[in-house]
Design the sequence.
């Protein structure tokens, strides 16, 4: 029997038991759907973070407290934080060659209050040139100035979201906001830049330290000159800070380093949740095997008859194997279509992306599941003794 | 093929089954020849070994000892696949319980052996249609098997047995599930086919049915007794 005839025979057998086939497919549908959606979520998160980083501008170097790296205790970096203004000056003095701008950075979060409205914002304390380092663009008003930083002035530049939440459509410039019972005057707003920036409030880092009682810096952000060699500059910065601190007390990271480790973690996470979702695909496969075994037993006489009129063991095995692959492939296709619909629907509130490889993988897996779990029933069918099979009631 | 060589020759065939600790001797040295154009009835009571003999003639089984020569070629050591290919080409089965594929048209049922013989679809339909016309079901090509009467089902089964132009039509109690009138019609059909030159072997316990055959072989206790 040629392939097309075998294919027709198998599909006829499936359509003869539509409900059963649909229920069997359901296992694979759910499995493939789960795998594709998990990958889509992971991929979406990775792309989101990459984009956020790219908006910061390239050639950024971060000096952060403690020894960094995946798997380190983050609390260690906070409790052993020794970074201070002194180190900003050390970098300025001893590693200035490739640096275009740098800023001390204090990071925290706070509820920001204006009259009866409040909003939880991420608060960053920066130096007067922080906007240049972090690529902030002013929409209205102005950025911090040197004297304000020096005098710990209570002034703030706010993001689009903060402005809209607290002031609606009216201009916030000159208005006052309260953070931790300290009154700050709004001197400027930023242009829209993305979620993480739009809900931010920027104040002088000196003011941030006093208002929120923070002793040390969260980090030092350095922008290199255009075309400056990153590795060389990083080493210069390392040497400068080493004049005062042990090498375990701080770390120097390029933007690529940070992005790389975040993506590594997210990649691992995607793989892990994808793998867990893959278990449901396995369960779907067991469902196929179960139904195929029932089907082989039910159709014992048919197998006997086919063998009597000339079907070889290979013919019989192919017929049942194609049947299980059709079920799993069908389930896989439906699962992918559903994942696309869900992906489309989810995009209004979360970033998800279905990569091409995930679709190829899902198809490959679903066919693989059909072959893996269809082989045993197919062999069982092929091995049936035609005499016994013809007698079967 | 020379006319003297029988289509099928069974030479001193023994078939023993081991069931648990017991050995059942189903056939104890059977000799038998089927020649072109023969109409043979194999008769025997249940447990006589006639079913085992039928399975060996039908190439569904191989003997424990002895030879089975198909057109002079010993097939007693054939593999399952070789037996399947030989069955497809040389044997047309007619069963007591028809064994048609459920919810499948008569045409598709008759086409089945041709599919395994890898005949092209166009030729399959042509041959299958001719065979259904021959058995008097030319107007039932597209009826599903469950829409047919018992007699019609058996006619479809006979058409299926004929479709590959096999050397032997092997019928196992072909009238066993039919009423007398329908059974008689099937008998007439077999007679007609034999007149057309088809070689037919009927296996039955029914003496009356056996009478229509030109040659009768009686099996008892695994041996040919007459």
Sequence:
């Amino acid at each position: 029997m040629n392939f097309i005839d075998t294919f027709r025979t198998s599909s006829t057998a499936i359509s003869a038991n539509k409900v059963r086939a649909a229920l069997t497919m359901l296992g694979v549908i759910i499995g493939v759907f789960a795998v594709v959606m998990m990958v889509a979520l992971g991929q979406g998160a990775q792309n989101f973070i990459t984009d956020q980083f790219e908006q910061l501008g390239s050639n950024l170097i971060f000096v952060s407290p403690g020894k960094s790296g995946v798997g380190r205790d983050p609390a260690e970096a906070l409790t052993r934080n020794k970074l201070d203004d002194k180190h900003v000056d050390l970098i300025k003095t001893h590693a200035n060659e490739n640096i275009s701008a740098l800023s001390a950075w204090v990071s925290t979060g706070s509820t920001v209050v204006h009259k009866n409205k409040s909003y939880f914002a991420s608060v960053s304390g920066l130096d007067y040139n922080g906007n240049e380092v972090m690529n902030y663009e002013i929409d209205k008003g102005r950025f911090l100035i040197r004297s304000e930083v020096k005098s710990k002035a209570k002034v703030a530049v706010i993001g689009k979201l903060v402005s809209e939440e607290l002031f609606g459509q009216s201009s916030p410039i000159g208005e006052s906001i309260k953070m931790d019972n300290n009154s700050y005057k709004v001197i400027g707003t930023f242009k829209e830049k993305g979620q993480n920036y739009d809900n931010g409030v920027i104040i002088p880092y000196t003011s941030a330290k006093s208002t929120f009682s923070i002793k040390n810096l969260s980090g030092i952000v350095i922008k290199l000159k255009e075309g400056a060699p990153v590795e060389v500059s990083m080493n210069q910065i390392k040497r400068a800070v080493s004049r005062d601190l042990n090498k375990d007390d701080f770390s120097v990271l390029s933007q690529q380093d940070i992005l790389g480790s975040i993506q590594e973690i997210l990649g691992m996470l995607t793989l892990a949740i994808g793998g867990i979702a893959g278990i449901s695909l396995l369960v779907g496969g067991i469902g196929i095997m179960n139904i195929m075994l029932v089907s082989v037993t039910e159709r014992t006489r048919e197998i006997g008859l086919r063998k009597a009129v000339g079907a070889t063991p290979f013919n019989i095995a192919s017929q049942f194997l194609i049947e299980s692959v059709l079920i799993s492939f069908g389930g896989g296709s439906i699962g992918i279509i559903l994942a696309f619909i869900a992906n489309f629907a989810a995009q209004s509130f979360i970033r998800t992306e279905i990569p091409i490889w995930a679709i190829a993988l899902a198809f490959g897996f679903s066919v693989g599941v059909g072959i893996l779990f269809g082989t045993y029933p197919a062999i069982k069918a092929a091995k049936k003794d035609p005499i016994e099979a013809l007698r079967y009631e | 093929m020379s006319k003297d060589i029988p289509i099928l020759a069974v030479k001193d065939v023994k078939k023993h089954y081991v069931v648990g600790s017991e050995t059942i001797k189903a056939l104890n040295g059977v000799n038998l020849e089927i020649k072109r154009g023969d109409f043979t009835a194999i008769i025997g009571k249940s447990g006589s070994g006639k079913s085992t003999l039928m399975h060996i003639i039908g190439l569904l089984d191989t003997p424990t000892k002895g030879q089975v020569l198909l057109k002079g070629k010993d097939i007693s050591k054939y593999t399952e696949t070789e037996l399947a290919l030989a069955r497809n080409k040389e044997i047309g089965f007619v069963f007591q319980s028809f064994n048609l594929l459920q919810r499948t048209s008569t045409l598709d049922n008759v086409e089945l052996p041709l599919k395994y013989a890898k005949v092209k679809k166009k030729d399959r339909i042509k041959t299958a249609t001719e065979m259904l016309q021959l058995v008097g079901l030319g107007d039932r090509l597209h009826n599903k098997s469950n829409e047919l009467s018992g007699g019609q089902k058996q006619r479809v089964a006979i058409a299926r047995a004929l479709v590959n132009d096999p050397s032997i039509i092997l019928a196992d109690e072909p009238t066993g599930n039919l009423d007398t009138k329908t059974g008689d019609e099937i008998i007439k059909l077999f007679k007609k086919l034999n007149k057309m030159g088809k070689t037919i072997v009927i296996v039955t316990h029914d003496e009356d049915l056996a009478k229509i055959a030109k040659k009768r072989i009686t099996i008892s206790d695994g041996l040919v007794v007459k």
